[in-house]
Amino acid sequence: MNSVTLDDWVVDTANSYPNDVPLTRNDVRKEVERMVAKRSWTEDGNHLFIVFTGHGIRVWKARGGYHDALAAGSTLTYFAAIPVEKPLGGASPNGDAQADGEIPLLSHEIFEAVTDPAYNFHGKAWQDSNGKEM
Predict the structure, then answer these.
(1) Hey, which bits of 46-101 come out as E strands?
(2) Proportion of the chain above pLDDT 70, given as a percent
(3) Rounded to whole angstroms, what are the CA distances from 68 to 14, 20, 48, 93, 129?
């Protein structure tokens, strides 16, 4: 049985990114590295680092969100980038429509990270025989 536990979190108020260009994989990687160092976290295959962007900041290739892995020597560091883009329509269960709109995307990326964490290393993750995302 797989499980996901929120270990910790941090808000980075020291770095800002322009709204007119998407964050690259390298931008997200650097953000993960800064926060890992700041909080003395460990990069290993048992953690997924999730970067939520600020409102209006796009992520790599203008995707709605994504997860990937980066190699640091023999260690793969798993990460996801979740943009703050689409508030949930209708009633908000907790009064924060923006955060509620991120939950489906976050859930999607977590499930993919668990089932196929290293997308970048084989490039066809989550695709069926028609090239559609599973």
Answers:
(1) 48-55, 66-72, 75-84
(2) 77
(3) 24, 23, 9, 30, 21
